[in-house]
Structure prediction request, 120 residues.
Amino acid sequence: MEIWINPACSKCRSALTVLDAEGADYTVRRYLEDVPDEKEIQEVLERLGLEPWDITRTQEAAAKELGLREWARDAASRPRWIAALAAHPKLIQRPIITADDGSAVVARSEEAVRDALGRA
Prediction:
């Protein structure tokens, strides 16, 4: 299992605390430093069963600068959203855990982290 984190994020630190308390075997990806490319974002979206706008932090300054709130949310616009996430990784919701069973979760709550652990 891998967890995408921003160390400055309290939700990320909380998720790591739960994983450590459960003795989980995981790797950490600091996605602001080790930025996922468009293909990786696409793969994570498939694992999550979500669309790119579902994992976009629309309150970030970059989102406002890009005018993301005005972007279409349809299949034709999907590549544009994914490109924006790859170009501006701060826009990616966090933390994201990719589970060993091929699924993934946005682990913003302890319950979501435990759900990911149950999929290991």
